[in-house]
Amino acid sequence: GITFEEAEFFMEELRKTGAIDRSVLFMNLANDPAIERIATPRIALTAAEYLAFEKDMHVLVIMTDMTNYCEALREVSAARREVPGRRGYPGYLYTNLSTLYERAGRFVGKNGSVTQSP
């Protein structure tokens, strides 16, 4: 999640350049509930995959703050009383992150693509 001021900055920059007309934004703030911080990247990637592989677009996904995503995983893991791994994060943290980053790329027979920038 990002701060309200950072969200406003991104929106204003996209408006100034006209890129807002070609953008789909999924934003969550740092103070949003943990489940929302976990769900937002997956929802954004699902939309990106639809645009890339069903609509043949080249899509750039920018995930601005994965630290808050990891913190949300830690909160949920602690609430579920799971045995913590390194620094209190769940043992499946790296596997979970890979399920996000491995969604970038191209498919044979499809014209679109998904590019990610963490």
Secondary structure elements and pairings:
Blueprint: H1 4-17, H2 34-53, E1 58-62, H3 66-79, H4 93-101, E2 113-117
Parallel strand pairs: 1-2
Helix pairs in contact: 2-3
InterPro entries: ATPase_F1/V1/A1_a/bsu_nucl-bd, P-loop_NTPase, V-ATPase_su_B/beta
Domain ATPase F1/V1/A1 complex alpha/beta subunit nucleotide-binding: 3-116
Protein name: V-type ATP synthase subunit B
Structural description of this entry:
There is one protein chain. With 118 residues, the chain is mainly α. The chain has one domain. It contains 4 helices and 2 strands. Helix 2 (34-53) packs across helix 3. The radius of gyration is 16 Å and the shape is flat.
Key features of this structure:
mainly alpha; two-stranded parallel sheet; flat; V-type ATP synthase subunit B; P-loop_NTPase; V-ATPase_su_B/beta
Biggest beta sheet summary:
2 strands, parallel
Terminus-to-terminus distance: 13 Å
What number of domains? 1
- The rough form would be described as flat
Query: Can you tell me the residue ranges where pLDDT is under 50 for at least 5 consecutive residues?
Result: none
Q: Which oligomeric state applies? A: single chain
- What count of helical segments does DSSP give? 4
What share of the residues does DSSP label as strand, in percent? 5-15%
- Helix fraction, binned, reads 40-55%
How many individual β-strands?
A: 2
**Which structural class fits the helix and strand makeup?**
mainly alpha
Rg, nearest Å: 16 Å
**What does the average pLDDT come to?**
93
Lateral arrangement of strands in the main beta sheet: 1-2
Order of helices and strands: HHEHHE
